[in-house]
Amino acid sequence: MSNLSVLILSSADRGGAASIARQDANSLVDLGWKVGYVPEDRLVENEAIQQHWLPFIHASSFTERLLRLTLGQITSLLGMVYLVRKYHYDVVINHVPHISKVCYAACQICGIQNIQVIHLPLSSFKAKNWMRPGKMNLSISERGKQDLIEKWGVNNESVSLLPPSIRLNDVSDVEISHNCKKFDIPPECPVVACVALFNAQKNHELLIHIWERVVEQEPKAVLLLAGDGPLIDAIKKLVKSRNLSQNVRFLGMVDPGWVYECSSFCVLTSKDEGIPLVLLEAAAHQRAFIAFDTGANREFIQSNWNGILVPSGDEQSMISSILTCLQQPQLCAELGGHAFESYQKLSSKAVRGELLVNYLDEMIRRE
C-alpha cells in the first residue's frame, strides 16, 4: 500500500457531500494515511486528521458569494498552494465544485495530483461556468460519470465510479421514545420523514405545498423535517402561514436513526440528486423512499419495489403516492423490506474507504 499524504476539501455544511468527505478522511486515517481536511469541522473527531482553514470555501451571504467569485479565487489559490507546500501533500481530493478551478490550478502549480469528486449530475450548461473536472475524477453515481464523459468530453479513463457507503449507529427504544416526547410526536399519528438540508435544491417549499394537500385527507399525519440550512426560516414561515404547525415538526440537526425508526417512510422532493445518503440510511432502517425521478435516484430506487419514483415535479403524483403509503401500511412495509434487501446487497461489497485506497494505489502505479 502506498503511503500518500492527502488533503481533502469539503463544504462547511452538514449535507451528504460533507458526510462523504468526512467518511473519506476517517477511512484513510484509520488505514494509516496522513490526511489534511478543509474546512475546520467539529464533526471531524479524529485527532489524527490535520484540520485547516481556507477563505471563502463557505459563503452564506450574497456579499460573501460575490467575494468568493472575485477576490476569493485569488486568496483560495494562494492558501491552497501554501497548505500543499507546507504540509507536503501528495494529492488533493476536492468535494467542493465551486472551487474546482482553483483546486486544479493549485495542483498544477505544485505539481501534484488533483481528484475531483462529483456528487450531483452535471448536465446543466451553467455548471461549466463554475466547475472544472480534475485530472482524475470520482463520481458517486453512474449518472454523474456519464455526464462527465458525454456532455463534458472527459476521457473515460479519467472517471471512476465510487458509490457512497454509510456508518450506522444503533438506535435504542429509549432514544426513540425520548425524542418522540421531546418533539411531540403522538404514537397514534402516521409519520413521514424528510432528512435534508434546507436549500433550494432540496425544494422544501414544494414539499410543504404537497403536504398541505396530504393533510386535507389525512389530518393526523405528521411530517418530520430533519436538517438545517439557509432556507429553514422561510420554510417555518410558510408552514405557519398554511396553518400546518400541528402537522409539521422541525427537528434541526439530529442523528437521523431515530427519525427513520419512528417514521413509516421517507419523502424527498429534490430538484436534482446524486445518490442521496438518506436513501441508504433509510433503507438500512427498512424504510422506503418516495422521491422525484431526478438525478441518480433511480440508481437505488426501483419504483414500486423498494420505493416509489414520481415524475420530476409532478405534484399530484407525489400527493397520490404519499397517500397510498399512508393508507396502505402493508404495502409500505413491503417496500421498506425490499429497500433493506437493496441496502444489504450494497453493504456486502467493499466499503467506500477500501475502494478509495485501492483507487489511490492504482493511480500511483499508473504514474
Task: Supply the key terms.
367 residues, alpha/beta, Rossmann fold, 2 domains, 7-stranded parallel beta sheet, 6-stranded parallel beta sheet, 14 helices, 13 strands, elongated
In what range is the share of β-strand residues? 15-25%
* CATH topology annotation of the largest domain: Rossmann fold
Main sheet summary: 7 strands, parallel
Helix/sheet category: alpha/beta
Count of β-strands: 13
Give the count of helical stretches.
14
Query: Which series of helices and strands comes N to C?
Result: EHEEHHEHEHEHEHEHEHEHEHEEHHH
The pLDDT mean sits at 88
Radius of gyration (Å): 21 Å
Which ranges are low-confidence, i.e. pLDDT below 50, for 5 or more consecutive residues? none
| CATH homologous superfamily caption of the largest domain | Glycogen Phosphorylase B
Describe it.
It is a single chain. The protein folds into two domains: 5-165 and 351-366, Rossmann fold (3-Layer(aba) Sandwich); 173-347, Glycogen Phosphorylase B (Rossmann fold, 3-Layer(aba) Sandwich), CATH 3.40.50.2000. Helix content is 43%, strand content 15%. The chain contains 14 helices and 13 strands. It has helices at residues 16-30, 62-69, 71-87, 100-110, 127-130, 142-150, 173-182, 204-217, 232-241, 257-261, 277-284, 315-327, 329-347, 352-366, and strands at 5-9, 34-38, 50-51, 91-94, 113-118, 136-139, 159-161, 191-195, 222-226, 248-252, 265-268, 289-292, 307-310. The strands form two sheets. Strands 3-2-1-4-5-6-7 form a seven-stranded parallel beta sheet, sandwiched between helices. The protein has a six-stranded parallel beta sheet with strand order 10-9-8-11-12-13, with helices on both faces. Helix 8 (204-217) crosses helix 12, helix 11 (277-284) packs across helix 13 (329-347) and helix 12 crosses helix 13 (329-347).
